[in-house]
Hints:
The protein is of the alpha+beta class. Helices cover 47% and strands 19% of the residues. The protein is built from 7 helices and 8 strands. A hairpin with a 5-residue loop joins strand 2 and strand 3.
Amino acid sequence: MDADSSLDHVFFPHSGVVSVVAVYADGSIIEMATIGREGCTGMQAFFGAKISSVRLLVQIPGSAAKMPRAAFARAMESMPSFRNLMSAYIHAFLEQVLVSVACNGAHSLKQRLARWLLMMRDRSDDDALPITQDLLAQMLGVQRPTITNAAGELERAGLIERGREQVTILDRQGLTKASCECYQLVRTRIAFHLPKTYT
């Protein structure tokens, strides 16, 4: 979904990962946040918006429930429990964005790459992630050779293995240690607002 497109449906992923990205004039993109089974796309509908203000990219394919925006609005009005759950998700999502902004300025690419891979793993339940190095470079806002070097460091440490269109996590605990504290911070905040996310 592109920015400024009609917000006709809200999708609730059962599996897979969707990235919320910023798009620049030269066509380059960078990830602002990710959405997995803990949340939904089209959260602007929570505030009554009819137009999407962001671009969404499916990073790891999966399945999702599809809800028309009008039905979403009715559920928000008639079901307090649904409205409260969506409010909790909005809080968790905003905190993820805030941590991501801080992380991009404070931590090394290797740490940010480790965090990103762990967040993908949390949502996919599989150590083998169907992602390319081009995608990694785009999401983390760096050039391909730069991401190749950072991924190479993680691979030489025995934490990941790179394939043609796949990155496999070999040592999740080691990758967590290689990541910055932002990974655990995001997990903690999501678990606080949405306690059943990691059970």
